[in-house]
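question for whoever is on the cluster today: can someone run the full assembly for these? two chains, 422 residues total. i dont have access anymore since they changed the login thing
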Amino acid sequence: MLFKESLQIKTMSIVLIGDFNPVIIQPFWLASRKLIREQEAQNAHVEIIHNELVKFELDWVSIEITKSRFEAKSSQEPYFEPMRDLCIGIYELLRETPIKSLGINHLLYYAIADEKQFYEFGNRLTPLNNWDEYLTSPKVSQLEIIEEKRRDGQNGAYRVRIQPSDQPLSTPYGILININDHFAVDKGESGRNREMISILKGAWTESVKRANEIPEKIYNKIFPQ
Amino acid sequence: MIETTSYDPHWILDNPFSDVNYNKQYSSHLINIFNTQILNRNQFSNEEDSLLGFKDEEDSQFDIQNKADFSSYPDYFLPKFSEFSSHKIRNYIANSQKWVGYITELNKDFYTARLEDITHGGTYEVGDFFYDEVSKEDREYLKLGAIFYWSVGHSVRNGQVIKESIVRFQRLPKWTEDDYNEALDRANDLNQTLKWD
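^ ran it for u. tokens below:
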């Protein structure tokens, strides 16, 4: 069985860490710069526009910006590339913005068929019989694996977190695989030369490919056919 | 930075992470600050019918200077902010087939595009698309070489499954003179590193 057949919700988020002026980025500013349609700006659901925090949602993306953090998030797969373009577009326009790190986050929600398989998923990742003597009925609540030095040579890290799903799925046995593909500027760099935006453009395809492959390969490893 | 009782340096705790849940605490803290500001502003407001105002004079005697826990103030009408990182996903599209298209021909009623498979990679195909399928505000992008995204799949909106085909044109800022100059500089730098036989 392919693990991806259990995949029910896919969310992607792009996180930038730096020094931001949140109040600039508003739906009508995006429309005036032609980064979104005017009608989308008119229908935007604005939660708050404040010097410290801006939060709004279009039909296909949610945006939250504080002075140190920008996040765009979507659970609609056809809009993942437009969301990337939106982030690139914003910071191509605000080109002096210092951005020190970038996270391309992949949140994959799997609906597991039954309780036995759900338990076994955690048990095979981290054998629970190691704990039998010390804990009663041990279970995995969260597992986090990190690649501290990126394999592509870029500065940053790669982190995979596995936990029970925080979203309701078609079965009660949901698993969330949360992948943080994290890039950072080199030590001493200001981040003003759009380094992170260049990485966002260049690393996107590989990031998506790797995030889709890892859960599948790990699943096949712990449940060999 | 997250407060910790750990003595040793730790990679995870010492780096500002760019994952989705990092700011939950910070965002909630900011929202509490805004609520305090709103409450303070309205305490001294003279507008009688202000939605955010106190119900009567007695209520305004609460000491709010150092407290932003609004669960104990049920009579105030404060804006409700959602928890960005933990809201339930009601509308989603997963497992769709996606292509990126490049317009190669503009005809009378349709345009032709070269389509690259984003989902599986590898091959490319050629497809014709009617102009009617392009959203009105995207029509200015109908030019030779324009890039668009096409996807076919099932969306779920509040539990209802809907079959969808979506065409969306790429929107990026136009190149400025600086962009051309930067590209020329990069090309020149690259040219100087090349060794010709």
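summary bc i know u wont read the tokens: Chain B touches chain A through 47 residues (CB under 8 Å). Residues 24-43 of chain B form the longest helix (20 residues).
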